[in-house]
Design brief:
The longest helix has 21 residues. 28% of the residues lie in helices and 25% in strands. It is α+β, with helices and mostly antiparallel strands. The chain has 2 domains: 105 residues, FAD/NAD(P)-binding domain; 157 residues, D-Amino Acid Oxidase, subunit A, domain 2 (D-Amino Acid Oxidase, Chain A, domain 2).
């Protein structure tokens, strides 16, 4: 490639947002370049995890519910096209307590948008999901058509399809742009100069590094430790269809059933300390593991002493 080669749009970052942006722009007829210094859905990226829950419930934020429903339809269309079953229809279970306003607002939004759901009493929860210990005053919302996308494989399929349709993929890291005014080109660390009419920076936790003055105080990547616990041989209680993906809004913890033999996934949905996505050590902490085991003991006593089989620590949260 030379400095005179120009694209309609250059997308920097081949995670889920960048990959789909490049794919859809190419479908619209644009000449598109897609760049990523570490590769699509790489281990440092937020899109590089094993799995992601896709749910329709977002409280009163109807636009998010509609976006999620549209997103799931597009993912399923892609998976049928490429012949890979990267969506698991596990269902998604919300756990709430008493008159939780966020979950009550979610019920109203799901009903308005037309998303299928069930409201479950504590007795119904215990009868359907006996592997859980729900505690007093618990109730739930079950989305039967939601589930889990195998994130890393799914994003790589989007990039593969985009390239097959004419997107130019470049394994290049972009140098932070300088100056003010319109951006006509970017330089890469290897010395390439890439010109485009439009640029899309879909860099997730790298955005404050690329635009430190603009975004350095607004986007702050943090650690979030994710653990995969080994399920006992032949024990089907913690895999689909016996167990759904679930989110406990009482404690802000979520879990994914044992899929593809990778183990039961658990994480606490909370920001940790600041984290550098390039140089940060991805090691689990004793405190993080102890917290995860406390949640297992509280919710899933059958996994109280389960061994760790995979560590995804940390993923970056912004």
């Amino acid at each position: 490639m030379n400095a005179e080669q120009t694209y309609d749009t250059a997308v920097i970052g081949a995670g889920v947002f960048g990959a789909w942006t490049a794919y859809r722009l190419r479908e619209s007829g644009q000449a598109v370049a897609l760049l990523d210094g570490y590769g699509p859905a790489n281990s440092r990226a937020s899109s590089g995890g094993e799995s992601r829950i896709i749910r329709m419930g977002y409280g009163a934020d109807e636009v998010y519910t509609r976006w999620a429903a549209r997103s799931l339809a597009l993912w399923q269309d892609l998976f049928r096209k490429v012949g890979r079953p990267l969506f698991h229809r596990t269902g998604v279970l919300w756990l709430a307590q008493a008159d939780d306003p966020y979950t009550l607002a979610t019920l109203q939004t799901l009903a308005k948008v037309g998303v299928k759901f069930e409201r479950l009493t504590q007795a119904e929860l215990a009868g359907r999901f006996p592997q859980f210990t729900f505690g007093r005053d618990a109730w739930g919302v079950f989305e039967p058509d939601s589930g889990v996308i195998m994130a890393r494989g799914a994003v790589r399929e989007v990039v593969r399809e985009a390239v097959s349709r004419g997107v130019t993929y470049l394994p290049e890291a972009v140098v932070a742009p300088e100056g003010r005014g319109r951006l006509d080109f970017v330089n890469t660390q290897s010395g390439l100069k890439l010109a485009a009419a439009n640029f899309v920076f879909a860099c997730g936790p790298w955005l404050p590094k690329i635009f430190p003055e603009l975004l350095g105080e607004w986007i702050r990547p943090t650690r979030q430790e994710v653990f995969f616990f080994g399920v006992g041989a032949g024990d089907r209680r913690f895999t689909t269809p016996a167990m759904p993906a679930w989110v406990d809004f009482r404690e802000l913890v979520y879990g994914v059933p044992d899929l593809e033999g990778r183990g039961f996934k658990l994480a606490v949905d909370a920001h940790g300390p600041p984290f550098d996505p390039d140089a940060g050590e991805r090691l689990a902490t004793a405190e993080g593991l102890a917290l995860a085991r406390r949640h297992l003991a509280r919710l899933l006593p059958g996994l109280r002493d389960a061994p760790i089989v995979v560590i995804r620590a940390p993923q970056t949260v912004i």
